[in-house]
Amino acid sequence: MKFTLLNNDGTARRGEIETPRGTIRTPAFMPVGTAATVKAMYPDQVRELGADIVLGNTYHLMLRPGAEEVAALGGLQDFMQWDGPILTDSGGFQVMSLSKLAKMSEDGVQFQSHLDGSEHMLTPERSIEIQTLLGANIRMVLDECTPFPATHEQAKASMQLSMRWAHRSKKAFGEYDAGQGDALFGIVQGGVYEDLRHKSANALQDIGFDGYAVGGLAVGEGHDTMLQVLDFTAPVLPQDKPRYLMGVGTPEDLVEAVARGVDMFDCVMPTRAGRHGTAYTWRGKVNIRNARHADDPRPLDEGMACQASSRYSRAYLHHLNRCGEYLGAMLLSWHNLAFYQELMAAMRAAIDAGKFEDFRATFYEKQKSGDLEPL
User: Fold this and answer.
1) Contact predicate 281/274, CB 8 Å
2) Topology of 2-267 in CATH?
3) Among 89, 143, 182, 253, which one carries the catalytic annotation?
4) Can you give the pLDDT at residue 374?
5) Could you report the per-residue pLDDT of 286-296, keeping only the tens digit for each?
């Protein structure tokens, strides 16, 4: 994997990540394909919207259908018919949040499947093995996602455990990757504490990774606190490696994180919101269930190329949503992913033009304008 920094505009960065499966333009938003599918979307649609990479979930795929089964079918790319790069998370967050009776130890996490109660053990080595079997081009170290709130001592112990697991993950990656050219990212932990984040970032750089993620955010700390953590974490990460903010977020989160030098994002928000009747637009959020949309002939956004955004009326989308029709969730998911990719493309263009701050100001003006009148 190779990362090339093409442009800076202040601390906002524009670059490219070259992988064996293709090039990722950064800043990049990765649609989440939890169980080898971006919910309510065809793989070709996701690609046509401008996504260069999607995310797969180690926890869900190890339980069903199983990493060995996916490997036997050609890996995730063949399995889900996605021809581009794939990043897999380590599975650690889902183990702690979804599984039953999870028990943390120095060795790893022992847990019961939320599907059938079967017993499993996830260690740093097994996580890397699973991600290798899945065929991920970017793999993540196993870490403990420090809960919020946590005391300084709790966050310190959690971070130190994650750093020990990072060492083991790096060693396992060297054994499993065997020179295939794929990448391993470390994950900075430390809660909301500046000294712990700096110690974590330094420890990861001593180990050496292809990229660096900021984990343990978007877990309840709030938007302002998240940005404060980025303010003192991003500057201590290497300039020549990609930076990935995990599990984030809203359009505003993306704009502010890009302003602070983040290159990569993932979040279930655009598809989850679409399934529940919420659309993100250049004029802010639209709750399509609201009765005022029942007779509205306008599309969600007449200026967007996506047909879900510009072809179907709000009245029709309101009707589909109120009736619980599958097409309603499909169209809003399609639109939301299109908007997220347009947002990333607009930020890349603004950085290249040296006008990111102008873009940022205009973005907020549009978001405050409301969705009742055309732009």
Assistant:
1) no
2) TIM Barrel (3.20.20)
3) 89
4) 45
5) 999 999 999 99
Tens of pLDDT, residues 230-287: 999 999 999 999 999 999 999 999 999 999 999 999 999 999 999 999 999 999 999 9
Claim: this prediction has a pTM higher than 0.90: yes
- List the one residue out of 13, 25, 28 whose CA is nearest residue 259: 13
Long-range contacts of 64-69 (CB under 8 A, 24+ apart): 64/35, 64/115, 67/129, 67/130, 67/133, 67/134, 68/133
* Active-site residue (options: 253, 266, 301, 371): 266
95: pLDDT confidence band, cut at 50, 70 and 90?
confident
Which are the contacts of 176, defined by CB distance < 8 A and separation ≥ 6?
A: 128, 129, 132
Q: Which residues contact 218 (CB under 8 A, 6 or more apart)?
A: 226, 246, 247, 248, 249, 253, 267
Q: Which two tokens stand for residue 113?
A: 């499947």
pLDDT value of residue 375: 38
Spans of all domains in the chain:
2-267, 274-368
Pairwise CA distance, residues 262 & 259, whole Å: 7
Contact predicate 112/101, CB 8 Å:
yes
Token readout for 367 is 């978001």
Whether residue 263 lies in the annotated active site: no
d(CA 255, CA 362): 12
What does the alpha-carbon distance between residue 342 and residue 346 come to, in Å, rounded to a whole number?
A: 6
The span from the CA of 215 to the CA of 257, in Å, is 13
Note if 352 is an active site residue: no
